[in-house]
Structure formats: C-alpha cells, structure tokens
Amino acid sequence: MERLNYQHLFYFWNVAREGSVTRASQKLGLAQPTVSGQIAVFESSIGAQLFRKEGRKLVMTETGRTVFNYADEIFSLGRELGSALKNRAGAVSVRLSVGVSNALPKLVVYRLLEPALAAHNQIICQEDKTERLLAELPVHGVDLVLSDWPATGGTDARIYNHPIGECGVAAFAASELQQRYRKNFPHCLDGAPLLLPTSNTALRRSLDQWLDANSLFPKIVAEVEDSALLKTFGAAGVGVFMAPTAVRAQVEEQYGVKHIATLDGVSERFYAITAQRKIKHSGVVTILEGARNWLA
C-alpha cells in the first residue's frame, strides 16, 4: 500500500461506529453496495480483513480495531482543526483518551484528571478492568491507563509504568455506625459489618493483610468492585468501608458519611501506564505533574 485513501478510511470508520453497513449507508446518504464495495477495495489495498461476520453481527477483526483506533483519532483531530479554524481566538482542546481501572476511587480519578481539564484537554474516559485497558495501549486505543497496580512483566514490552504517588487509607461509615465503631479502633471492627473491594484489586490485598495482622474477623456483608457503588452502600448504612485519605473531605461531603480512623500501615498507590517510556502527550505530562504535587 503506497498511499492511504482517506475516503475509504472514512467509510470504514462510519461502518465500525454504526455497527452495520446499512446504518452507515443511511447516515452517509449512499447506497449500501457503494459502501460495501469501497470497504472491500480498502481491505484489498491494505491486505487485511477489517470485519468478520458473527451471526447477523458485523465484528471488527484485530486489524480492524487497530485501524479504527487510528481513524477515530484522525477524524477527531479533523474536527478539532475545523473548530480551531472557525474560532481562531479560542483555546484549542487537545484530545486525551484515558483508560480508568474500575477499581480506582472515582473522586481520586477526577482529582487526577482535573489539571488536564483545566489545561483545555478534551478527556475521553473509558472504564474497564485494567487488563483490558492495557491491551488498548499498544494499538492507541487509549493514551494513558490509570491504575492501582503497575503493569507486570507479562504484559506488552512497550508498556511503561509511571508511579504518581500514594496516600493513606481510612475507615468511614454512616453516622450511626461511626458512633458505634469509632472507639477502640481497629479492634472494634472484629465482628463489625464491613464492605470490601473485590479480591482482584490491590487495595483488597492490602486490607486482607491488615485484617490478618490485627487478628480481625469482621462480617463481610458485600464485596463491590466499583468504588462509587461501594461508597453508596456505605452511605446507606450497610457497613464500614475504606477510602483514600487524600479525598476524605470529598467522601464525607458527597456521601454524608463520617471518618472513623486511619489504618496504620495501609496505603493506596496510583500508577499512570503508557506506551512510551518518555511522555510526549502534553495532557499526560500535566496529569503526572499535578498528581505528584498532590499525592505524597
């Protein structure tokens, strides 16, 4: 392939977004055979299949996903260029695609992304399990993954960890439970109703070790992967839960709960994971600098 045909790429991008040739044809105002034919020409020119049929569904191949991620960025930049030319005096947004581990506290995520928002970055957030997000880095599905644990040696060699800080962990509860369990901490948690993150999170592993070290056997009433849902359970008085001390004020205000105590020897670490050893994206640089100034 000597030269990329952007018209063919545009047709492919629309079909991938719509999930069907029929819907993409209607959106583009073209006949269905025309769109199908142009995609066939595009596949021939790049020497790879972009879609496969699964029953009645049209699913992208691995090559298709790679091409789509690049196309999404290309046409997003085109929209940004159009906006910049239309309003030359205004601030131009820089697109930043961020993968967020679903185990991360949402209040922490917002605080980490806040400097990039203030610097006129257009943030596209994708929340998922860390493993699936890491798979998007080499194919440019995301620019950055925020996680509570680093990528290990078993992942792609082109993935790099950037530690961005850590903070303590504290126990919180609705007012009635807080009154009951604020004395003689942590021994008061023995037999207490406790809300925990699921076992696939770094915080859960740290909490299990802390409970064992203190010979505590609480009543685990729920294990919740999503940190915001876990806090919602806690706000309803279901049990005591843990959250980062860095967002203590926000947790208390947003969920109407009260701080019980800080856990000795337990901390939560945060990592920015990228496909480059040396950070080039200005938005990622802004996030890292802001986080290191905020977190210990």
Topology, please?
Blueprint (H helix, E strand, L loop, with lengths): L5 H13 L2 H8 L3 H15 L4 E4 L2 E4 L1 H25 L7 E8 L4 H13 L2 E8 L1 H7 L7 E4 L12 E14 L1 H7 L11 E4 L5 H12 L5 E5 L3 H9 L5 E4 L3 H8 L2 E17 L7 H13 L2
Strand order of the largest sheet: 4-3-5-10-6-9
The low-pLDDT segments are none
Give the CA-CA distance, first to last residue: 50 Å
Please tally the helical runs, counting DSSP H or I stretches of 4 or more residues. 11
User: How does the helix and strand content classify structurally?
Assistant: alpha/beta
For the CA atoms, what is the radius of gyration?
24 Å
What's the helical proportion of residues? 40-55%
Global mean pLDDT:
88
Coarse morphology? elongated
Largest sheet: 6 strands, mixed
Question: Could you explain the architecture of this structure?
Answer:
By secondary structure, the chain is an alpha/beta fold. It is built from 11 helices and 10 strands. It has helices at 6-18, 21-28, 32-46, 62-86, 106-118, 130-136, 175-181, 202-213, 227-235, 248-255, 282-294, and strands at 51-54, 57-60, 94-101, 121-128, 144-147, 160-173, 193-196, 219-223, 241-244, 258-274. The strands form 3 sheets. A 6-stranded mixed beta sheet has the order 4-3-5-10-6-9, sandwiched between helices. The radius of gyration is 24 Å and the shape is elongated. The protein starts with 5 loop residues before the first helix and ends with a helix. The mean pLDDT is 88.
